[in-house]
Description:
Layout: H1 31-36, E1 73-78, H2 86-97, E2 102-107, H3 115-126, E3 134-138, E4 149-154, E5 157-162, H4 168-173, E6 178-182, H5 197-210, E7 219-222, E8 234-235, E9 241-248, E10 254-256, H6 265-269, E11 273-276, E12 279-281, E13 284-285, E14 298-302, E15 308-312, H7 317-321, E16 328-332
Parallel strand pairs: 1-2, 1-3, 3-5, 13-14
Antiparallel strand pairs: 4-5, 4-6, 6-7, 8-9, 9-10, 9-16, 10-15, 11-12, 11-16, 14-15
Amino acid sequence: MRWGEPKKGKRGEGEKKRRGEGETGRRGDTSSLKSRFPITPSPHLPISQSPHPPISQSPRRPVSQSPRRPVSLITLLTDFGNSDYFVSAMKGMILSINPDASVVDITHEIPTQDIEAAAFTLLAAHSSFPAGTIHVAVVDPGVGSARRAVLVETRGQFLVGPDNGIFSYLIESEPQVSVLEITNTEYFRAPVSTTFHGRDIFAPVAAALSTGIDPSELGKQITNPVLLAPLRPEKSKNGTVKARIIHIDRFGNCITNLTRSELTEKMIADGAYLVANGAKVKSFRNFFSEQPGRRREVFGIWGSAGFLELAANNKSAAKILKAKRGLPVVLRMPKRS
């Protein structure tokens, strides 16, 4: 017998064992894996109705069957950044409850504790998502205090987060909105941290919603959610419109709260202009490089979120105007002779 030649005999005798066969059995046999890596019951209890079998029994009450069709798309918007564990902990909580959920990051780079920036970003982004989407928004300076947790429903979408004005712009902009205070603690992670409601309240509630529970199981409707300053500009009797900058993007474009309702094409054709920080803005463009020769000229342009923006070609309009969010922007018409 040559060196390395297997001994003859019954099939399989002396042969090299196939990959996946051995003491642990054939590939896919998990009996010995369980003994080597025992699964302990988790305090974070899945409320999933997915086809995947649960790995532990849940002391929470089972989720009742609901005629509402389950959805699997959940978005996250926070000021947590990406260098800490916060975002991954929220995603882990969601997937523990609904392993079939798809989690999409809108952004985690909202300036810390900047509720207005979060409110604008959510308003601008939410309409790009399909009906049934569940948005979780967490910019929460009041975490652990008496501030409420709320669920907002509009246009077939749900929004979960703190009642601190973060949903204010969306509530004001939509014709039909219902707001519910989340009070049913059976859908919370236990124990609830006083510093991380994103993981312990908002993420598990959103995941439970994604399994198809009836929103009415979470709490009762309210009519007094916290609202920021009104999004709609102020109109005076003489025709002047007092607007403001509600957001400055990373390019230095200054987004105002003016819409086509306040500034029509006819008004622009008739000579309408803007005054911001003492500077007059008389030029309006359809795209940024429409007049490339005037590099420091600030002009008006309709942005993708539906608001008028003050911009400069390849420059920061915010730096040119020395503008910050909240800066008044006055819309005026030329005086008639």
